[in-house]
Amino acid sequence: MSASALPSSSREWHLVARPHGWPRTEDFALREAPVAAPGEGRILIRNQHFSVDPYMRGRMNDVKSYVPPFQLDQPMDGGAVGEVIASNAEGFAVGDHVLHFLGWREYADVDAKQAVKVDASVAPLLAYLGVLGMPGLTAYAGLFDVASFKEGDAVFVSGAAGAVGILVGQMAKLKGASRVIGSAGSDEKVKLLVEEYGFDAAFNYKNGNVAEQLKAAAPDGIDVYFDNVGGEHLEAAISSLNLHGRITLCGMIAQYNETEPTPAPRNLAMVIGKRARIQGMLVRDHEALQPQFVREVAGWLRSGELKYQETVVEGVENGVEAFLGLMRGENTGKMIVSLDR
């Protein structure tokens, strides 16, 4: 595409106020920004899909964390896939598809060093934001590396119908788990986990006490807990944990919008007698697993052994609504905003 054919402007989402508790639509603004030809070593990408993820809620707070906070009145960012429409960088040509981190906008001017080519013939572009992307690697590393999963383990996954949880349960089954239990926020999702994704049992955490429902679903206890929720779920998992059990702390979505400190699990002392291990994880610490992860997961996808699901919201203008829907648990699998119209 020649410079004269480039778009003149790009719509992009800005954070305009830091949310207190649950984010509101008025905390965000969709604004237009000019588009120019890319400078030396840069590429211009027409975003086709971008990711909204729970961790982005933490980036809306002005606190020091493992990822810098979003800046007010600046475009937000996150995972995206798209097509190169102009290139001023060696190794990238117009028409290439790339994965990069400047989502939340229609067009992205990206440093070529921060972009990775992806092959749409190997898997749909959407998959590089989910099962073959950050959520997939999170599930793989969190289960096999952090939680030291071994054949015969009984595994409990909270947020099991989300982008990560839906994969953790299936991966555990593929590697010989004795039992896989999931929790989700609706009866429909619970049914899906058992009937479509092969979980041995699942329960709706809104239907009653989490600890009691978990004990009923896992009468012989659990060996691994993959935590996406925190709070009451973490306390319940500690109660059901067997001797030498392992817990991967991946996310705590139940606490992201709280304005007051949440009580810690009241049964932490049980970790001592059970000689349990609790470990937090960030996916970026496990990048060395990427080749092994892609090789094994691509094989499972080809054979049909591993299934995945996406909830797709159309249009950049609906980006914030997609994020708010994610926080309300309206997604099954990976939540993605698609601009590919």
The average pLDDT score comes to 94
Shape: globular
Beta strands, count:
15
Q: What string, H for helix and E for strand, traces the elements in order?
A: EEEHEEEEHEHEHEHEHEHEHEHE
> Which parts are unreliable, with pLDDT below 50 for 5 consecutive residues or more?
none
The fraction of residues in strands falls at: 25-35%
Radius of gyration: 21 Å
What structural class results from the helix and strand content? alpha/beta
Distance from N terminus to C terminus (CA atoms, Å) equals 18 Å
Task: Annotate the secondary structure layout.
Layout: E1 9-15, E2 28-34, E3 42-51, H1 55-59, E4 80-87, E5 97-100, E6 107-111, E7 116-117, H2 134-146, E8 154-157, H3 165-174, E9 179-184, H4 187-195, E10 201-204, H5 210-217, E11 222-227, H6 231-240, E12 241-249, H7 270-273, E13 277-280, H8 290-303, E14 310-314, H9 319-327, E15 334-338
Parallel strand pairs: 8-9, 8-11, 9-10, 11-12, 12-13, 14-15
Antiparallel strand pairs: 1-2, 3-4, 3-6, 3-15, 4-5, 5-7
Helix pairs in contact: 2-3, 2-8, 5-6
